[in-house]
Amino acid sequence: MDYKNLVEKNIYFVEPDEFLSKIITKLKNEKAVFVKDKTRFYGAISKKSFMLLGADLSKIKVKNIAKSVPELNKKTTHQAMVEAFVESNLEKLPYFENKDIIGYISRNKVLENIVLPELNVTVEEVMSKNIIFININDNIAQVLALFKEHGIKKLVALDNGELAGVITITNIFNYFVSGDRINLDNLRNTKVKNVMKENIISMGPNKHISDAIKKLTAGKTSSLVVHENRDIKGILTKTDILEKYLATQKKQNFSVQITSKLDKLPTDIINKKVEQLSKFFRDDEEIHIFVHLTLGNEKYKGSPLVHCRLRIVSPRNSENISVEGWGLDQAIELAIQKVKRRIVKERDTFY
């Protein structure tokens, strides 16, 4: 397929042996930077890559935290491209031609040119209804803990039960960056209200998804708060829309999609384990489950720490379940058990 009309050429590279302190200012104005030298492409660095580094960035090299990312080219199908953005959770991905990077394709371009023409739904059909709130007087350490627990990058902040703002990874990154280091010493002493964004961009639940995509791709936000008559109904992100698009590409009523960088992944076994959840849903409703697996650095008795995030998309709601376990089997099993408990507890949310 010819994607040249989607490719943007103002791509920014950094050398793998550069120190992080040299690129931190650039990253404040970029969604991600790509890492390569003359012979090798290492991957990308995003703001999230920095958040666990409370160290002197002048001593850490770029290549040590660069993450491999999907590589796009003319053979990439529409569905594979959307899957790549869901998997990486980045705002832009490199586009290759004859093994050379000639530019990048942004998540916004994919939403506007691939997803928008094929998605005919309302905001309410796509948004996440199970919102996780934070109080404006809670601290940033609590925010980061919730980000990690639920596999998310933004929270809705309340003041006395009223909508007050939204706080994101980007807000936190920009607030704590100082010179060549990220000063995370005061996480517990810094309140949400000092970091959050108060200018909330919102939309009604009955609006067409095309209206939401236009707002999301305007460059000012990556999520919308959905409300009606001052009642918060949900939150809509770019990832929600991409996953809804993927769900519409599936023909069966219950489908499982796995994204992971783990080697020799037993996808058939994982599919069978996750498919046992199908009996908890009605046969006449479409249910799509996205499984995302990442590997931690820690080990216990030879088993690596595996982070498993399940995202369940149904006609009524979308739900994130996030767990960690020692080894792949334990992580998958813990995630499935957590989903079962959530369904039993909040059955009306899923049906």
Concise synopsis of the structure shown:
This protein is of the alpha/beta class and 351 residues long. The chain has twelve helices and 17 strands.
Describe this structure in words.
With 351 residues, the chain is an alpha/beta fold. The protein folds into 3 domains: 13-105, CBS-domain (Roll); 123-241, CBS-domain (Roll); 251-350, Double Stranded RNA Binding Domain (2-Layer Sandwich). Helices cover 29% and strands 29% of the residues. It contains 12 helices and 17 strands. It has helices spanning 24-28, 47-50, 78-88, 107-115, 140-150, 169-176, 192-195, 209-216, 238-249, 267-275, 328-345, 347-350; strands at residues 13-14, 32-36, 41-46, 92-97, 100-106, 133-135, 154-159, 162-168, 177-178, 181-182, 202-203, 223-228, 231-237, 254-260, 287-300, 303-313, 318-326. The chain has a 4-stranded mixed sheet with strand order 14-15-16-17, sandwiched between helices. It has a 3-stranded mixed sheet with strand order 1-2-3. A 3-stranded mixed sheet has the order 6-7-8. The radius of gyration is 20 Å and the shape is globular. The chain starts with 12 loop residues before the first strand and ends with a helix.
